[in-house]
Amino acid sequence: MQAAKITFIGGGNMAAALIEGLQKNQASMMSVAQPVLVVADPSAERRALLADLYAVETFADSMAAVSNADLIVLAVKPNHVRAAAEQIRTNLSPNQLIVSVAAGITLTALQNWLGGHQALVRAMPNTPAMVGSGATGLCGHPALTAAQRNLAESLMRAVGLVQWVAHEADMDAVTALSGSGPAYIFLVMEAMQAAAEQLGLPAQTAKLLTLETVLGAARLAMTVDESPAQLRARVTSPNGTTERGIAVLEQAGLRAAFAQALTAAHQRSVELGVQLSEDERAL
Ligand SMILES: NC(=O)c1ccc[n+]([C@@H]2O[C@H](COP(=O)([O-])OP(=O)(O)OC[C@H]3O[C@@H](n4cnc5c(N)ncnc54)[C@H](OP(=O)(O)O)[C@@H]3O)[C@@H](O)[C@H]2O)c1
User: Fold this and answer.
1) For atom 35 of ligand 1, which residue has the closest CA?
2) Of 14, 88, 172, which is best to mutate to test ligand 1, by the most ligand atoms within 8 angstroms of its C-beta?
3) 182 CB less than 6 Å from ligand 1?
4) What are the residue boundaries of the structural domains of the chain, listed by start?
5) Of the residues 77, 86, 177, which should be mutated to test ligand 1's pocket, given the most ligand atoms within 8 Å of the CB?
6) Which CATH code is given to the segment(s) 181-252?
7) Is there an atom of ligand 1 within 6 Å of 83 CB?
8) Which atom in ligand 1 lies closest to the alpha carbon of residue 87?
9) Main-chain dihedrals φ then ψ at residue 98, nearest 5 degrees
10) Tens of pLDDT, residues 51-63
11) Which of 113, 175, 209, 256 is deepest in the core (most CB within 10 A)?
């Protein structure tokens, strides 16, 4: 199969993570050949850095960059998506697939800004994508072909796990879970480390043991065919240390706190989506 051409509009953190993932993980793309990667970004400094780091072709002009691209990734901040879309809309052909990673920008807004274009996917990645361990929710326009769905999935799989959602409204739940989720776990890590230091462990020891415990627990849960509840039961011996600690977390309302946290993040994601569409109407 011929190498796919992928153009990134915006060469920031997310574009760099995807480019790095694609270059490291060639097998994730459907084509046999390594995809041709192109970046458009207004900053000359950013273009020079990306060309230097990844040997990609760079453009100041988005319109030129999207010519003959099979896949165009909109990787700009949400408030720049409209301008970025309008810069390329006159040069698009209907079968060019566009994947937007911008939080809160709906498929309808993208379609409007891109002059009715329908080959559209909305993606919600998270920051561990920077190290190839992202978790991404995808939602596609109903007009997508199976090949276009595969192409979008291959792109995001280069930086981690991918899950499609059937209804666009579910992207707010994805945002509340995996989009904001790394920060919840960082908070848990901060709390565990601080508590261990209070018990007398040196800061570096507390930090390293906390990090490896979180990573190890996630790896174990992904490797064995048991639910987190079963794994927890297995390490909780009657009248032991874990049972004592877990009882405190249950009494402190950990489950309710997570339920409230995800509900609040979901609500904020809905509000931001509404605000973005109101800003759009105001323009
Ligand atoms: N970082 C994450 O982990 C993460 C997670 C989930 C979703 N996302 C989404 O990914 C998107 C990109 O985030 P990021 O962290 O990569 O942002 P970023 O580092 O700010 O990168 C965006 C880049 O796009 C450039 N740009 C602005 N307008 C442009 C245009 N019209 N054409 C071409 N390039 C343009 C920006 O240049 P200037 O700086 O000069 O404006 C900047 O270099 C955001 O919409 C965000 O919601 C990111």
Assistant:
1) 10
2) 14
3) no
4) 5-168, 181-252
5) 77
6) 1.10.3730.10
7) yes
8) 31
9) -115, 125
10) 999 999 999 999 9
11) 175
Q: Is 5-168 in CATH node 3.10.20.740? A: no
Say if ligand 1 is within 6 A of residue 266 CB: no
SS3 108: helix
CA distance 84 to 79: 10
List the 120-124 sheet strands across, edge first: 57-59, 36-40, 5-9, 71-74, 97-100, 120-124, 134-140, 160-164
Helices (H) and strands (E) in the chain — how many of each? 12, 8
Residue 200 Cα to ligand 1 middle (Å) = 43
Residue 40 Cα: closest atom of ligand 1: 33
Nearest residue by C-alpha to atom 15 in ligand 1: 13
pLDDT for 178-196, tens place per residue?
A: 999 999 999 999 999 999 9
CA 213/CA 175 separation, integer angstroms: 25
Q: What is the CA angle 47-49-53, rounded to 5?
A: 120
* pTM score: 0.90
* Main-chain phi, psi angles of 77, to 5 degrees: -60, 150
